[in-house]
Amino acid sequence: MIKHPHIRLSSVIMGLSSALDLVSSKLVHHHRQTTCIAGRIADSMGLSDEEKSHLGIAAALHDIGAIALNLEFELFQDGGQLNRHAEIGYLLLKKFPPFSEAARIIRHHHRLWNDGDGAYQEGEPVPLASHILHLADRVAVQIDGNACILSQCHRITEALGDDTGRWFPPKVVDAFREQASREAFWLDAFHADTSQFAIDSPTVPWNVELGLPTLQQLSELFRVIIDFRSPLTASHSRSVASIAEAIAKQVGFSGQSCSLMHIAGNLHDLGKLAIPVSILEKPGPLTNQEIFHIRSHPYLTYRVLNSIGELDEVCSWAALHHEALDGSGYPFRLHDVNIPLGARIVAIADVFAALTEDRSYRKGMNRENVLKIMHSMAKERKLDAFVFDLVVNHFDALNELRAIAANTGNQEFKELRKELSLLSAENIPGEKLAAAPQQQFRQEHFS
Ligand SMILES: [Fe+2]
Ligand SMILES: [Fe+2]
Ligand SMILES: [Fe+2]
Predict the structure, then answer these.
(1) What is the rounded CA–CA span in Å between residue 379 and residue 443?
(2) Read out DSSP for 280-340?
(3) What is the pLDDT of residues 364-415, one digit of tens each?
(4) How far is the CA of 321 from the centre of ligand 3 (A)?
(5) Sign, Cα dihedral of 420, 228, 71, 301
(6) CATH class of 7-199
């Protein structure tokens, strides 16, 4: 019997924030450091718990738009024009009700103050929290992770320049300077300590306890980030989630466990955020270095989900999807009984989706070829034979679910791109099928 998870929104946000920081070596701790700094400035300015709560959510996820659409080059620039990622972040987050105010803050997080003009944008008031986030972000990007932070305070403070009225509201700069006079502020920022961000009030969004439906909604948001980094994977996690949930139902999992299975499917490739898109989209066989990269992703999924706490089932089902019963899987090289049934289901759903969907190097396979490959994997004890039998018996229904997920996912991807006027033929999933060897599947799924 699986207990109902009692998870605070803040735990999930900070876990997902760490996941965003996996994307680039330049981003190490960036979201968490920005959150810490923004929280300190908010304290100096006397923001209410409610305001600080929205600011915390916004800071922890502020560059999510850049990560979703691979605009990472924008992150370390500034000037108020290079802010497509802020608009994308707004569009992504506003769909999730507890994030609607944070979405508004993110939308304007590169807005210049311009001696007061920055209080509005196109007639709409810009939240003060956006300006706090802007300053916190600019401070965080100046931190050099390889040097002692106390040797950097002067340089970073100087980098804000004298003409701060052009960039930030003076009261935000004053609040920052008050904090910056203390070594502990810098040390907390460097170590990305967000524990100081604790907010007492139990009713603010930061402290909201998530029910299963809200948790699932949040996992859909992250599924979009995971899948949309490449048009070639635009529906993969959605497919795995649908197939894994359907198999779990056939196995007899409870309604709650089926929902957790759906969440595990959505998040199973969370660790792929750390894999460069050039590898994900590579049409030919992977080099050894690239295979090492790929092999790290379930471990990173584990690290992030494990850090959230109270998500044990989702964490093990999602993160163990490349383990094999014969012990040849990765990254933990687990055997038989140590691989839970839930993880075996996600593993089968992952292989089923990978074989049936269009990939960069081939069209989706037909029933005969899919079952032939999966049969030999089950025979070699790479996959669970009992779960595989369910796939054989329900192949058409599962493939139908996969096709629906692919259509919906690809449609969702196109709409988001269109909303941002970024749509171009080369970005449309399924229309970029390069002719190349079919080795990538084998390299990802076999040792
Ligand atoms: Fe940004
Ligand atoms: Fe940033
Ligand atoms: Fe995977």
Answers:
(1) 19
(2) HT--SPPPHHHHHHHHTHHHHHHHHHHHH-S-HHHHHHHHTTT--TTS--SSS---GGGS-
(3) 899 999 999 999 999 999 999 999 999 999 999 999 999 999 999 888 888 8
(4) 7
(5) positive
(6) mainly alpha
pLDDT tens track for 286-329: 899 999 989 999 999 999 999 888 899 999 999 999 999 999 99
Give 41 Cα–ligand 1 centroid separation in angstroms: 18
Collapsed DSSP state (helix, strand, coil) of residue 435: coil
Distance CA 135, CA 298 (A): 35
Angle (deg, nearest 10), helices 341-356 and 312-319: 40
Residue range(s) occupied by CATH 1.10.3210.10 in the chain = 7-199, 222-445
Ligand 1 centroid to 133 CA: how many Å? 9
What secondary structure letter does DSSP report for 96?
A: S
- In degrees and rounded to multiples of 5, residue 160 shows phi and psi of -70, -20
Query: Taking the alpha carbons of 186, 189, 191, 197 in that order, is the dihedral positive or negative?
Result: positive
Right CATH for 222-445 from 2.60.120.260, 1.10.3210.10, 3.40.50.720, 1.10.287.470: 1.10.3210.10
57: its two tokens? 């959510």
Calpha distance 44→50 (Å, rounded) = 15
How far, in whole angstroms, is CA 268 from its chain's centroid? 11
Give distance in angstroms: CA of 33 to centre of ligand 1.
Answer: 13
- Nearest CA to 271 among 358, 326, 330? 330
Question: Are 355 and 445 within 8 A, CB to CB?
Answer: no
Report the C-alpha gap between 172 and 164 in whole angstroms.
10
Question: Residue 188's closest CA among 77, 43, 55, 371?
Answer: 43
Residue tagged 């920052």 (tokens):
176
Report the alpha-carbon distance of residue 349 to residue 247 in Å, rounded.
8
Residue whose pair of structure tokens reads 């994977």 in the numeric block: 233
107 Cα: distance to centroid of ligand 1 (angstroms): 9
Strands (E), 113-240: 120-121, 124-125, 209-210
Q: Which ligand is nearest to the CA of 137?
A: 2
Instruction: Report if pTM > 0.85.
Output: yes
Tens of pLDDT along 323-348?
Answer: 999 999 999 999 999 999 999 999 99
